[in-house]
């Protein structure tokens, strides 16, 4: 039995040795295949990653170009809107200035007319008082007194007319 056991041990050892040698050779081939496969996988992954990086870079470049175009368009639109608003504001300002000038001109005319009317009314009242005072004088002096009073009245009316006409001219200049 001992011989059988020894023999069994030798056969087992021989088999193990044969298996081990075959396994090592196969293992070396498997390792080489695995290394080759791994190298191929790494090359493919690197190639795919490079393609993805290039694609992402192209998308980024396109997005940046689109963003720049959008900003330029927004700036142009904003510039146009600012120009339009400025033109509208300038137009409104001109219209308001014209309206203001018209109102000022009308007010200036009305004031000049009122001053004229007041000056003429005062001159006529002064004339009536002076004419009444002339009647208290001796009859030889009354004529010259009334002529002087009438002359003062005409002078006051002429001055009032000149002031009114000058004011009207100024009022017309305001409108223009």
Helix and strand topology:
Layout: H1 2-135, H2 139-175
Helix pairs in contact: 1-2
In short:
It is built from two helices and no strands.
Explain what you see:
With 176 residues, the chain is mainly α. It has one domain (42-175). 97% of the residues lie in helices and 0% in strands. It contains two helices and no strands. The chain has helices at residues 2-135, 139-175. Helix 1 packs antiparallel against helix 2. The chain is rod-shaped, with a radius of gyration of 59 Å. The model is unreliable at 1-11 (pLDDT under 50).
Q: If you average the pLDDT, what whole number results?
A: 85
Uncertain stretches: 1-11
- Give the overall form: rod-shaped
Given helix and strand content, the structural type is mainly alpha
> What is the CA-atom radius of gyration, in angstroms?
59 Å
Q: List SSEs in N-to-C order.
A: HH
